[in-house]
Amino acid sequence: MFSPSETSTNLTTPGAIVSRQWRGVLNEYSDRLNISAATPIITLGEGGTPLIPAAALSARTGAKVWIKFEGMNPTGSFKDRGMTMAISKAMEDGAKAVICASTGNTSASAAAYATHAGITAAVLVPEGKIAMGKLSQAVAHNAQLLQVQGNFDDCLDIARDLATNYPVHLVNSVNPDRIEGQKTAAFEVVEVLGDAPDFQFVPVGNAGNYTAYFRGYSEEVARGATTKLPRMFGFQAAGSAPIVLGHRVDHPDTLASAIRIGNPASWDLALNAREQSDGYFGAITDAKILEAHRILSAEVGIFVEPASAIGVAGLLERAEAGFIPKGSTVVITVTGHGLKDPQWALRTADGSDVVPTIVPVDTAEIASVLGLAKA
Ligand SMILES: *Cc1c(COP(=O)(O)O)cnc(C)c1O
């Protein structure tokens, strides 16, 4: 074993901290969250995710486009920002078990944070409807995972029922601590840009994240850190677009499983946020989601799960329709990592699957396939 002081020649105090790492959103923003000295901080180092300039998207739209890459969180989605808060507050209340309904990422996050805290997570997911990566995470992190023979909305109804009538703490985004934690993403954007962007694009499922960004930016305006509120632009999949349609969808259908939600829990809050921010809700087809997914991975270099690409599709659609003034600053939040649900990357535009070319063990042959001429 080496002691930390041996890793640096600059610091001479034995045992001194030699590098400062990001400490997770509760520690970084303790003065702006509802926590106290009595709150045990359960963190896996979430937040502090990169805000990446996307030249390819700027070139396509004439806007200054930045990607907030939330797939870089510990369990691979933005859900960790809310989960650190929800599990920490549950621990403060003495909880021994938490429960959630999930389209996948909430279960992965709840399972990781609960097990880190030494308590149990039970998760309800729609049978056969969640991506393999997410299912694997929840199982690996020791959750009691049950596949319910219904859709996400059924799972959430039951999770709420259980939390009301049994000794188990609900950590879905109807738990206000989740949205509190998630608002920190807006703080990070403002720190990097020095102001709020003109537009903030997000995918919308339960609309908790849309609501959280709006709250984060509103607080930045209130404390004088920004000159404006961004216009909040949210996107739902066309087969699962209750807010756009103005009524709940009983059988939501989209390949973007993370936003396959027919009755959003934060519907009213999201309508208010749209109203206050002069925002917008739009619907995007699955074909356009996959097209945006390809642009993001092949032109920008960022790999996301399908639901996360919808903001990019939304920007391309809105820019094409003339609603994004040239030179506007646009932040698109991409919510989950591509490794969660990687199969879509192999799907080509015509619906067939990519099979990489097979070659013999032969340098000349491989050089010829690669189109390399001998120097
Ligand atoms: C949960 C989730 C969403 C939807 O967020 P809401 O707060 O439910 O609107 C979008 N993308 C990914 C990857 C998610 O995990």
Short description:
With 375 residues, the protein is an alpha/beta fold.
Task: Compile the SSE list and pairings.
Blueprint: H1 25-28, E1 51-53, H2 55-61, E2 64-69, H3 79-92, E3 97-101, H4 105-117, E4 120-126, H5 132-140, E5 144-148, H6 152-165, E6 169-170, H7 176-182, H8 184-193, E7 199-203, H9 208-222, E8 231-237, H10 242-245, H11 267-277, E9 280-284, H12 286-300, H13 310-320, E10 329-334, H14 363-369
Parallel strand pairs: 2-10, 3-4, 3-6, 4-5, 7-8, 7-10, 8-9
Antiparallel strand pairs: 1-2
Helix pairs in contact: 3-4, 3-7, 4-5, 7-9, 8-9, 9-11, 12-13
Residues 77, 79, 105, 173, 203-210, 258-259, 305, 307-308, 335-336 line the site of pyridoxal-5'-phosphate.
Bound molecules: pyridoxal-5'-phosphate
Report the count of strand segments. 10
Low-confidence stretches: 1-11
Strand order of the largest sheet: 1-2-10-7-8-9
In this structure, how is the largest beta sheet organized? Answer: 6 strands, mixed
For this structure, the CATH topology of the largest domain is Rossmann fold
Content-based structural category: alpha/beta
**CATH C-level class of the largest domain:** Alpha Beta
Can you give the helix content as a percent range? Answer: 25-40%
The share of residues in extended strands comes to: 5-15%
- The number of domains is 2
Order of helices and strands: HEHEHEHEHEHEHHEHEHHEHHEH
If helices are DSSP runs of H or I spanning 4 or more residues, what is the number of helices?
14
Mean of all residue-level pLDDT scores: 94
Distance between the termini: 49 Å
Catalytic activity: O-phospho-L-homoserine + H2O = L-threonine + phosphate
GO molecular function: L-serine ammonia-lyase activity; pyridoxal phosphate binding; threonine deaminase activity; threonine synthase activity
Protein name: Threonine synthase
GO biological process, one term: threonine biosynthetic process
